[in-house]
């Protein structure tokens, strides 16, 4: 349910459970975390999903059994953030709940125009993972972060783009081509220069 491809220095990770809106089980989250940790030295990495939804967040049955508050979410987003190369979340559809964390931890986010973004954690009676509000607020500011996390608002792709939550809106048929095009300069550059620029941007 997690597909991984490595083409030279470019890693592609795809969530492949479209019949369940790419909802994430504990096993899938562990696999994702393991994969991102293995890809720490990747020059470039693209994260995407299969079908019309990027991810609906936690699998509902497992969420009720404790997955919603499992530390694996934080392990995953930390592993995404630790990748040394350029990371791009190519959001093929709606992004919801805890799945937001790994997208927020990527360097860039591109999305199809029909995508929606929401994180109903408070409504469900849970706290978000600690790093998610911090990363979101850095991207879109504290007020808009509260609009999503506390106001429970579902944000359209156009709003997400205007907020700065996503960096480009791309037609579905061109999404992966765009993601690959974005990482080409990084792949062609000297690793120490590309990684040096990323480190400077973190300061």
List the helices and strands and how they pair.
Layout: E1 2-7, E2 10-15, H1 26-38, E3 44-49, E4 53-55, H2 60-64, H3 72-82, E5 86-91, E6 94-96, H4 100-105, E7 108-111, E8 116-118, H5 131-140, H6 142-149, E9 155-156, H7 157-163, E10 168-169, H8 175-188, H9 191-202
Parallel strand pairs: 2-3, 3-5, 4-6, 5-7, 6-8, 7-10
Antiparallel strand pairs: 1-2, 8-9
Which tags fit this structure?
single chain, 203 residues, alpha/beta, 2-enoyl-CoA Hydratase, Chain A, domain 1, 6-stranded mixed sheet, 4-stranded mixed sheet, 9 helices, 42% helix, 20% strand
What is the number of strand segments? 10
Structural domains: how many: 1
The amount of beta strand, in percent, is 15-25%
SSE succession: EEHEEHHEEHEEHHEHEHH
From the 3D structure, determine the CATH topology.
2-enoyl-CoA Hydratase, Chain A, domain 1
Radius of gyration: 16 Å
Query: Structural class of the helices, strands and pairings?
Result: alpha/beta
Strand order of the largest sheet: 1-2-3-5-7-10
**Anisotropy-based shape:** globular
**Averaged pLDDT, please?**
96
The total of helices stands at 9
- The CATH architecture would be Alpha-Beta Complex
Head-to-tail CA distance between termini: 36 Å
Largest sheet: 6 strands, mixed
**Uncertain spans, ≥5 residues at pLDDT below 50?**
none
Considering DSSP H and I runs of 4 or more, what fraction of the residues is helical? Answer: 40-55%
Q: State the name of the first-level CATH class.
A: Alpha Beta
Outline of the structure:
This protein is of the alpha/beta class and 203 residues long. The protein has a single domain (2-202), classed as 2-enoyl-CoA Hydratase, Chain A, domain 1. The chain is built from nine helices and ten strands.
């Amino acid at each position: 349910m997690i597909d991984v491809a490595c083409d030279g220095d470019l890693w592609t990770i795809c969530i492949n459970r479209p019949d369940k809106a790419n909802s994430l089980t504990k096993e899938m989250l562990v696999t994702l975390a393991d994969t991102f940790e293995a890809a720490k030295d990747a020059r470039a990495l693209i994260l995407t999903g299969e079908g019309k939804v990027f991810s609906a967040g936690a699998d509902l049955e497992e969420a009720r059994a404790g997955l919603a508050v499992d530390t694996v979410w934080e392990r995953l987003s930390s592993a995404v953030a630790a990748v040394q190369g350029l990371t791009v979340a190519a959001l093929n559809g709606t992004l919801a709940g805890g799945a937001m964390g790994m997208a927020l931890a990527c360097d860039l986010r591109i999305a199809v125009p029909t995508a929606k973004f929401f994180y109903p954690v408070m409504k469900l009676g849970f706290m978000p993972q600690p790093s998610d509000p911090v990363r979101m607020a850095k991207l879109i500011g504290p007020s808009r972060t509260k609009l999503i996390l506390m106001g429970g608002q579902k944000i359209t792709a156009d709003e997400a783009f205007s907020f700065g939550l996503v960096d480009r809106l791309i037609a579905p048929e061109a999404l992966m081509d765009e993601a690959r095009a974005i990482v080409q300069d990084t792949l062609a550059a000297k690793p120490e220069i590309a990684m040096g620029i990323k480190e400077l941007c973190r300061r």
